Amino acid sequence: MGKSESGDSCTTQQQQQKKKRLYQGPRQENHYNEAQTPPANYPDPEHEHYEVPKLSPDVPRIQLRLAGDKRKHNEGRVEVFYDGQWGTVCDDDFTQHAAQVVCRELGYVDAVSWAPSSKYGKGEGPIWFDNLHCTGKEKTLAQCPSNGIGVSDCKHTEDVGVVCTDKRIPGFKFVNSLANHVESLDIQVEDVRIRAILSSYRKRVPVTEGYVEVKDGGRWKQICDSDWSQHNSRVICGMFGFPGERKYNARVYKMFARRRKPSYWDFSVNCTGTEAHLSNCKLGDRLRW
């Protein structure tokens, strides 16, 4: 097998809806950035050793992502995967403390600000959380008091967004947050990204096409295309808030791979296409180079 890197090309919500333009109301230019001090006993991420949160059985298992158009990787509309479906969060009673919980659940050190009134566009599906009252100490947004998951009187014009600091929590790992326990075959990585290679995509925000890379042991590594499938691409695009995947010129990426000596991740990936995040997929075989 010749080595080459897996690439992905994702469709944006704008591309899917270019014939169905939705009025989103006036854009809010400024983020709310409240002068709130961290709550008592709030962990200091600069000196924190990350541990996988241990949640009681009664806490709903959710997965978060940031979505929307015209955004950087560390900002966007807050979306929640629950009961097999992506939904959003209402801006009613949302605070900087809630933004902190969101950002830390995604592996970022802290929240910079948050934005009301669907600044990043209107989402779709259920509005899973409304009237959240977070202290900032919660390990997951599902631990914050609210109306109850799925109980809301909001519309998608009230979808909330956040801006997280670009710095990652030391030692953070994405794990299968939808399961009650972590299995040995679950994928555990510090971060995932789509790295733009072609010059036409490097200037795009957000990045919609490029190599799929994972951060493991503090280093970014490319995923080899061995056993890569359209199901895997669908999951990668979905976890970055894109509604779907599309075909790309694989020969171009193979050509770039031959020009340099990349660092490959040691494993293949097995997704069914329905997972909310790469960490929900199964770890494949160890690859032999």
TrEMBL record:
InterPro entries found in the cross-reference section: LOX-like_protein, SRCR, SRCR-like_dom_sf
Organism superkingdom: Eukaryota
Domain SRCR: 64-165, 194-289
Single Gene Ontology BP annotation: collagen fibril organization
Keyword annotations from UniProtKB, A to Z: Disulfide bond, Signal
Transmembrane segments: none
Annotated GO CC locations: extracellular space; membrane
Disulfide bonds: 90-154, 103-164, 134-144, 271-281
Cited PANTHER family: LYSYL OXIDASE HOMOLOG 2, LYSYL OXIDASE-LIKE-RELATED
Protein name: SRCR domain-containing protein
Lineage of source species: Eukaryota, Metazoa, Chordata, Craniata, Vertebrata
